[in-house]
């Protein structure tokens, strides 16, 4: 027996012919198509980590700014609150950082973890860098460290069965909440 589809009033299909509800994430298509991805390896080749600090903090999703590095939200997060810490300088490899950059990236990472615990009650974290395309870096030309908050049971059936990640909050709301909980230096 086929079920009819219905419109949710905003032009979206809520239930398919198979009777299953659908979650639509059209913003992910930009990531899939590689939009906003640099077209080269230089800082002037569309690097989003060079562009973000030039924007206002809300527009660039910037959480905190230091002298040599900054923290911002991931535009395509794995979990709510997924943030990254980047040097301002366009460098690709961890060994290219100077002492001040290394120290500030560490301090911003600690502040991000503190803010995520305070704002969201994160129970654990995945912290790390993918250096080079072979290691899985989506933007290999500009070093960035991921800080992904985790909770017990946060991997549920949606990513496994539906290849869909459910994020309960818009990025602007996440940014506001984390900024409010960011440690004052």
TrEMBL record:
Give this protein's Gene Ontology molecular function annotations.
catalytic activity; nucleotide binding
For region Disordered, the annotated ranges are 1-20
Name the active site residues.
144
Q: Any idea where the HIT domain is?
A: 48-157
Please tell me where substrate binds in this chain.
Answer: 74, 146
Motif: Histidine triad motif; annotated at 142-146
Q: Where is the composition biased (Basic and acidic residues)?
A: 1-15
UniProtKB keywords: Nucleotide-binding
User: Pfam families, from UniProt?
Assistant: HIT (PF01230)
Name the InterPro entries on file: AP-4-A_phosphorylase (IPR052908), FHIT (IPR039383), HIT-like (IPR011146), HIT-like_sf (IPR036265)
- Would the keyword Nucleotide-binding be found if you checked this record's keyword annotation? yes
Q: What is this protein called?
A: HIT domain-containing protein
Q: Which organism is it from?
A: Thermobifida fusca TM51
């Amino acid at each position: 027996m086929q079920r009819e589809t219905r419109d949710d009033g905003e032009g979206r299909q809520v239930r398919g012919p198979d009777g299953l509800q659908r979650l639509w994430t059209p913003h992910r298509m930009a990531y899939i198509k590689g939009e906003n991805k640099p077209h080269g390896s230089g800082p002037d080749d569309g690097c989003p980590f060079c562009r973000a600090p030039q924007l206002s903090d809300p527009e660039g999703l910037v959480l905190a700014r230091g002298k040599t590095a900054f923290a911002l939200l991931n535009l395509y997060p794995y979990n709510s609150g997924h943030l990254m810490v980047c040097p301002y300088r366009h460098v690709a490899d961890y060994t290219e950082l100077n002492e001040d950059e290394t120290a500030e990236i560490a301090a911003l990472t600690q502040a991000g973890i503190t803010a995520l615990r305070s704002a969201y009650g994160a129970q654990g974290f995945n912290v790390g860098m993918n250096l080079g395309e072979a290691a899985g870096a989506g933007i290999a030309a500009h070093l960035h460290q991921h800080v992904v908050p985790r909770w017990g049971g946060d991997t549920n059936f949606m990513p496994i069965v539906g290849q869909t990640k459910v994020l309960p909050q818009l990025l602007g709301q996440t940014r506001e909440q984390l900024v409010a909980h960011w440690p004052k230096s």
